[in-house]
Amino acid sequence: MNSKYIAIIKERLSIIKSELSKKAAIALAIAGNKIQRHDFKFNIQGIKIQGIKLDKKKKIGIAGIGGLGVVSVIVAVVLVSSQLIGVTYNGKIIGYVNDEAEYAALIDNAKEQLSKENSNAEIVFDEADFSTQTEFVANTDAAKIIDEKDLISTLSDSGKIKASAYAIAVADKNLVSVATKKDANKVIKEIKARFDDTENGITGEFLEEIGIENIETKLGKFKSVDSAVEYLLTGGAKEETYVLEEGDTPWAICEREGITQDELKALNPDFNFERFLIGDELKLTKIVPYVHYQTVAEVTANEEIPYNTIEEETDTLYKGEKKTKTEGVNGLREVTRQVTKVNGVVTESPELSSTPISDPTDAVVLVGTKAKVSSGNGGYSFNSSFSGGNGILSDAYALLGVPYRSGGKSPSTGFDCSGFVSYVYGINGINIPVSASGISAAGQYIPLSEARPGDVVCWGSPGSSGHVGIYVGGGQYIDAPVPGTVVSLRSSAYYAPSFAVRFF
């Protein structure tokens, strides 16, 4: 069909559009000798006319076009067409809007809704994936008018929605991202606020280089401010092996390392937690922060000056017995230290200056020299004349609150587990070893179910126990647990001993 014919047809189309009702749709069929009934569509200068079926009842004829002779042009009008904007995504039409303004609003509304659902992040669409085209649609009731929910669903299914996020970079490595630059700055600010003491003018600095970078990422790949702060401070888990030493118990290790017994057992499924030995190995998980924030400040505080303990011999007490003659009193001094903290934990605190406030008063302890009868068992014996554990219990209770000290054997210096037990037994006239393994080997083995107040409870195996305490009855015992703690009353329900030994 040449340009002359097209011009005439366009003219007739203009007449039809102006004269027919709003529900008209146009189809053309060119036949040689009779009207044919069929579906037909064609485009003229970008205008699409579709969904038309010919009908003999309504027609317009055109004759005598040029020197080509007589040609019948039949125009059948069946339905009225409506002009819509088709929205295409990745080459496939996904619905219609009424005009370009509605299309622009559709995109903006979808971005706004996605932004609200994703911490106000800036949503990024690949505009090359979208296109629009003007169409005349015959059946407008069947045409799908798309809204932002439909568009979001289509984009979500495609997995191509992205967000403009901001990553916290530590030593040039992007570790965690948040929705906005404001959030990224807030993460850094909150870490500083956690460890700075602005009231006293103490501020610090990151030990690593910290930066903020704008990135594009898929939805759901960034964190809230609080989650980002915790992620950077708790960091990654690093597994290491710990060798049990004298005085160690698995539950005490849990307390020291800040993990639960279930977590420790999960890390060590083959470990025998009922019978363990010095030298056994446990797997532990260490938390290594991704960022380290350091503060350095001069801190002045009062510190106690420990008193000394002087021992005086007396024949009024049996050998191994001790009795306090004069209570010691700690002194006091004002000390200035340069305290360095990393993530709130003191790493060093050298003393800069000190001013005495009060001197300590020495404690005087009477030490027995009277001989007593003992019987066998490696030089350690049972006291057959001992009336029971009441004296042991009262002395054990009196020592509650004494600080733990590795190798400690007296109230003035502090106790470790075996030092505490041997001290209490010693002042009650019973000489026992000063190591956990020695105590567990020297005493008479007693099943835990038959333990009575005053017996020594042990963890591990006889002769190789790693921890000991004094049983007080009712499933409780007193012991010196771990560094940083004090002599305490504890429950077997928290961590049960393996067995008991008896010396009286």
Features:
single chain, 504 residues, alpha+beta, 5 domains, six-stranded antiparallel sheet, five-stranded mixed sheet, 10 helices, elongated
Structural description of this entry:
- Helix 2 crosses helix 3 (148-158) and helix 4 crosses helix 5.
- The longest helix is centred in the first third of the chain and has 18 residues, at 100-117.
- The N and C termini lie far apart (121 Å).
- It is built from 10 helices and 29 strands.
- Mean pLDDT is 78; it is low at 19-80 and 372-387.
- It has 5 domains: 3-80, no CATH class; 84-160, no CATH class; 164-234, no CATH class; 237-288, Membrane-bound Lytic Murein Transglycosylase D, Chain A, CATH 3.10.350.10; 293-367, Resuscitation-promoting factor rpfb (Resuscitation-promoting factor rpfb fold, Single Sheet), CATH 2.20.230.
- Helices cover 22% and strands 36% of the residues.
- The protein is elongated and about 135 Å long.
- The chain has 504 residues and is an alpha+beta fold.
Secondary-structure blueprint of this entry?
Layout: H1 3-19, E1 26-30, E2 39-44, E3 47-53, E4 73-77, E5 82-89, E6 92-97, H2 100-117, E7 122-124, E8 130-137, H3 148-158, E9 162-170, E10 173-178, H4 181-195, E11 205-206, E12 210-218, H5 225-234, E13 236-243, H6 250-257, H7 261-267, E14 281-288, E15 293-305, E16 309-318, E17 322-326, E18 331-342, E19 345-348, E20 351-358, E21 363-370, H8 390-398, E22 409-410, E23 414-415, H9 417-427, H10 436-442, E24 444-446, E25 456-459, E26 467-473, E27 476-479, E28 488-491, E29 499-502
Parallel strand pairs: 3-8, 16-21
Antiparallel strand pairs: 1-4, 2-3, 5-6, 5-8, 7-9, 9-10, 9-12, 11-15, 13-14, 15-18, 17-21, 18-19, 18-20, 22-23, 24-29, 25-26, 25-29, 26-27, 27-28
Helix pairs in contact: 2-3, 4-5
